[in-house]
Amino acid sequence: MRGSVGVIVGETSPLQFKFMIHGAVGRGDYVKVRGDGKSWILAQVEEIRRSNTAYSIAHMERGCTQTCREWVVADARVIGVPSDGRIRAPATPPRPGEEVYAADEKMIAAALGLSKGDMYIGILKGHDLRVELDANTLVQKHCSVLAKTGSGKSYTAAVILEELLDKGVALLVIDTHGEYGSMRYPNREGEFSRFGVKPKGYNITVYTPANLAVNPRADRPFRFDGLNLSARDIARMLPDDPTNGSVALLYEAIAALKAERESYDLEDIIKQVERSSSKSKWTLIGQLEQLLEMGIFSGEPTRPEELLQRGHASVIDMTGVPQEMQPMIVAKLLTDLFEARKLGRVCPGMVVVEEAHNYIPERGTGKAASTSIIRTIAAEGRKFGMGLMIISQRPARVDKNVLSQCNTQIIMRVTNPNDLKALSKGLEGMSSELEEEIKRLPPGTAMIVSNEIERPIVVNIRPRRSRHGGVSTPIVMTEHPVKGPAPRKEQQRGPGLFLRKVLGPRGA
What we know:
By secondary structure, the protein is of the alpha/beta class. It is built from 17 helices and 19 strands.
């Protein structure tokens, strides 16, 4: 067969082999070699080394100018033998002296399981092969997107959300920084023709737990039902962990109110607590008044049925909400939503949690009221049709119980040693080679690890169809000197032109 890129040398095993390169082969490329019989063994190049014994240190010290042949040797890790849509381990190792060939894309797709999905994420690095994940598996068995700041995690997460919306999946997005409302607008930048995608806007509704004056980008306020709250509901929303005395006061106050009237609100609870003779009541009153001032229990309540609708994304934009209050809001929101899902009152869907380390911190790195319910969804969500996507720039600070439940992990560039250590603990088969690969991933490139894929793969993420809302605002502007009257003309146009240059088009 023509097109050989190398020949196997040295000792081999069913798991790995080395081959001397005499063709075009790069690190990460897929190759194939004949096994026993007619079957092909698929492998991936993990490392390449170049040597020339004529240029050893001893030769150079003696001033020797002798040259000899240069050797380029590759280490290949065996993936397996594709057979009937499955991959099996080879029974015997490949033979030294066998020719090595570049693997064809059909074989790669079949062996890695890339042809079974229906969600187009991007193309396999080094190939024109589309990478498609299975939507049902990703939602039901949960997903995580992990990367350092600036590596494209929010961009990649939105690519996944676009695919899910196109499949009619209902989404609820906890948006800490207001990045996902832009998904309603078509994208204007990207290599659309290369990846075969077209710009498109999506059905998005943005809610604010604050108010529209604080967050004018939101479509409507998000509110809880403030009538007849239970002591458990209120305790879950308090800014600090309530003491046993505070919880007892809540139960006493609410029990007294129930005996007096059919309905009550948060103001009634505060007045009832004030009547107590307990000295610890003032701390509780201060916490309750903080809840009241937020306005989260005032106005028309947002129904769970409104938040989860097929082919629609509800974005809870936390802009303007005090950081210490955000986990409390998420705790009650997800508790109400999960209970509604278990009762069949809302359709199946997926919850997306941005900046997850703020809502499910690892033990020893902080506490959050939302940890318990997110753990519950991670453990039990599959049974009730509620998926979970976790997005974070600090894997080491995210609850490991939740991360371990994510069957699909999309990892972009990570360099922090603690974060790499956390990934190593959470990923099966994590090797030093994979760690090095993760540290070198360029922006827009991700490593995908899933039980549905035979081994980790590196993917060039496709352009978003919708507009990206997570672009950093430039702080230092580079000014270029302009001759003639140009500066005066720009000044006469007012501040609008300068602001457009700094902030970009309206809505970007």
